[in-house]
């Protein structure tokens, strides 16, 4: 199976430019899941830019 990196990266909303996992969604999710976090694409544009990927930040972003 071919990696979909080039396709995925077109819809990636992560603004953390130095990250080598951009477009590699499987690695991105595994990385953040291991830290009990969510990837950038779960967050609003404003919250994403804080780079706080915590579940608490997600809940707050959702107004919960
Ligand atoms: S969400 Fe995290 S792992 Fe995924 S591309 Fe952005 S910085 Fe990298």
Keywords:
64 residues, mainly alpha, binds iron/sulfur cluster
Plain-language structure description:
It is a single chain. The protein is an all-alpha fold and 64 residues long. It has a domain at 19-61. It is 42% helix and 0% strand. The chain has helices at 5-10, 25-34, 45-48, 55-61. The mean pLDDT is 96. The structure holds iron/sulfur cluster.
User: Percentage of helical residues?
Assistant: 40-55%
Through-space gap between termini: 39 Å
Molecular shape: globular
Bound molecules: iron/sulfur cluster
Query: What is the CA-based Rg, rounded?
Result: 12 Å
Estimate what percentage of residues fall within beta strands: under 5%
Tally the beta strands. 0
Q: Give the structural class.
A: mainly alpha
Main sheet makeup: none
Summarize the structure.
42% of the residues lie in helices and 0% in strands. It has 64 residues and is an all-alpha fold.
Topology at a glance:
Blueprint: H1 5-10, H2 25-34, H3 45-48, H4 55-61
The structure holds iron/sulfur cluster.
The site of iron/sulfur cluster (SF4) has 10 residues, from α2.
